[in-house]
């Protein structure tokens, strides 16, 4: 699993709450990408406290986080969580599994319906229901853009995607996170953004 290094983040092993995370796997075990995503998602849920309002993302890592939140709600370890989903699919999952109140790389992207017939073969509609493309609350389609090689510089990839005709936005949230959680062969790392104030 290759990740771009960002010097704005520093490593920290501190977790703000004591909800148990899954233990790291034995060093001889090779994990799949989905297993690493689950480990990172569970670690992210360690930051969730009762009474929080949570933005619920879209994608496989978010799916694992929503499942974990649901498990903790059912166990009574979390309560009064309000989830704000980014898609109908995430909302359905949150309502059903979490009981929340309302080998290529793929990037979910929002595209204008007027460009749907001319979309590139690099894009594939996601979230289909009975053969229909997934439509956002704004009436845009959500498509997965498949990249054939390593993303490299994320800002360049972001700019390139946003320049594609009809693309409104994508699922890369650059410069918005203060903490990132990375699961890899050596375990879980938590990186916090340097504060430029104080």
TrEMBL record:
Cited Pfam families: Rib_5-P_isom_A (PF06026)
GO terms of molecular function: ribose-5-phosphate isomerase activity
EC number: 5.3.1.6
Region (Disordered): 86-129
Keyword set, alphabetical order: Isomerase
Stated family: Belongs to the ribose 5-phosphate isomerase family.
PANTHER family named in the record: RIBOSE-5-PHOSPHATE ISOMERASE, RIBOSE-5-PHOSPHATE ISOMERASE 3, CHLOROPLASTIC-RELATED
Name listed for the protein in its UniProt record: ribose-5-phosphate isomerase
Lineage: Eukaryota, Viridiplantae, Streptophyta, Embryophyta, Tracheophyta
């Amino acid at each position: 699993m290759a990740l771009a290094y960002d010097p704005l983040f520093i490593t920290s092993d501190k977790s703000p709450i004591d909800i148990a995370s899954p233990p790291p796997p034995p060093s001889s075990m090779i994990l799949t990408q989905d297993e690493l995503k689950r480990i990172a998602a569970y670690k992210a849920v360690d930051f969730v406290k009762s009474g929080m309002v949570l933005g619920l993302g879209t994608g496989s890592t978010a799916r694992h986080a929503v499942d974990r939140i649901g498990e903790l709600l059912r166990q009574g370890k979390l309560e009064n969580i309000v989830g704000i989903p980014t898609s109908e699919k995430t909302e359905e999952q949150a309502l059903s599994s979490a009981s929340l109140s309302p080998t290529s790389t793929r990037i979910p992207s929002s595209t204008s319906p007027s460009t749907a017939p001319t979309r590139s073969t690099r894009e594939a509609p996601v979230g289909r229901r009975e053969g229909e493309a997934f439509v956002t609350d704004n009436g845009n389609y959500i498509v997965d853009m498949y990249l054939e090689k390593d993303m490299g510089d994320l800002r360049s990839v972001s700019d390139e995607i946003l320049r594609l005709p009809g693309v409104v936005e994508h699922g890369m949230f650059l410069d918005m996170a203060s903490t990132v959680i990375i699961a890899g062969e050596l375990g879980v790392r938590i990186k916090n953004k340097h504060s430029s104030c104080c």
